[in-house]
Amino acid sequence: MNRKIGFIGLGTMGKPMALNLVKAGYSLICFNRSKAPVKELVAAGAEEALSISELAARSDVIITMLPADKEIMKVYTGEGGILHAIRDGSVCIDMTSARGDTIKEIARIASDMGKNVTFLDAPVSGGQAGAQNGTLTIMVGGDKNKVEEYRPIFEVLGSKIFYTGALGSGKAVKMINQLLNAGNTYIMSEALFLAKTMDLDMELLVNVINESSGTSWVFKNNAPKHVIPQNFEQGFRLELMKKDLGLSIEQAQKNHLSLPVVNLIYQIYEAMSNQGYDKKNYNVVSQWIYQQNKPITGENGNV
Asked: How far is CA 24 from the centre of its chain?
């Protein structure tokens, strides 16, 4: 596929994804507010765009990996945004974890502007390690023929590519995944806390649970790596998980649904965020249960 790719958003996930595209031989032009990752991409063989509009005018395919819905709307529809300079026939792939309604609204605006542009939504799962290793799970919504046409790009970035249906459905599937991830993480935290108060052998417990009906991806991976050793310095940040979980809250409110457990779990993540843990690995939410039991654990959290 000999088409120039424009990449906007070189953060924790976006930078290694863009690097993998360059290493795979794609011609890539990039834009980012912070210039340090741009310099790294240029050193690897990419080109720098000095503005979003320049990138849009020079690209056949545009990939965006942004913080949230607000940034997606600004980058696409704001002054100097993608839609004002994009060429007819271009393809936009937004890989941000966000609401499906946002990318559908951008597609509507593009149509109203008379733009002949294809939109795909393709959020990812797998964290920074998956982005670096090209092993992400990618959930792609949009025109199925276009998804298949651009599958080679997705296969550079991920090892598991799922077609989810109409535009916006990829983001909806990712939203449900993150709801389960966030919820499982906190339930796991209470279970491990209870086990610790009973002086159980934690290594044995993990081995038993991982062969039993109570296991999950979260338990297999995050219990021994983060929660039991209380290691929260690297990985997917709490602020990002709170944002992703908040998407489910917004969708439930839009649909006038009552999801009391989801609301309670969100409040716990929000409480930890308000205490200044935003930049820590999201498994730091496990410390909330220690805080609620200080008369038992003491100020230092030891059971």
From this structure: 22
DSSP helix/strand/coil, 116 = coil
Share of the chain above pLDDT 90, in %: 94
Against a cut of 0.70, is the pTM above it?
A: yes
The CA dihedral of 273, 276, 278, 284, to the nearest 10 degrees, is: -80
Same fold? 5-166, 173-297: no
Q: How far apart are CA 217 and CA 228, in angstroms?
A: 15
Query: What is the tens place of the pLDDT at every residue in 200-252?
Result: 999 999 999 999 999 999 999 999 999 999 999 988 999 999 999 999 999 99
Q: Which CATH number describes the domain made up of 173-297?
A: 1.10.1040.10
The widest CA-to-CA distance across the chain, in whole angstroms, is 66
Catalytic status, residue 74: no
Strands 61-64 and 5-8: parallel
| Catalytic residue from among 174, 242, 243, 280 | 174
Domain residue ranges in the chain: 5-166, 173-297
CATH annotation of 5-166: 3.40.50.720
List, for residues 57-97, the tens digit of each pLDDT value: 999 999 999 999 999 999 999 999 999 999 999 999 999 99
- 121 vs 301: which has the higher pLDDT: 121
In 3D space, the residue among 163, 161, 141, 165 whose CA is nearest the CA of residue 153 turns out to be 161
Separation of alpha carbons 76 and 236, rounded Å: 26
Q: Are strands 136-141 and 124-125 parallel, antiparallel or unpaired?
A: antiparallel
Task: Measure the CA–CA gap between 66 and 278, rounded to whole angstroms.
Answer: 17
The DSSP secondary-structure symbol of 237 reads B
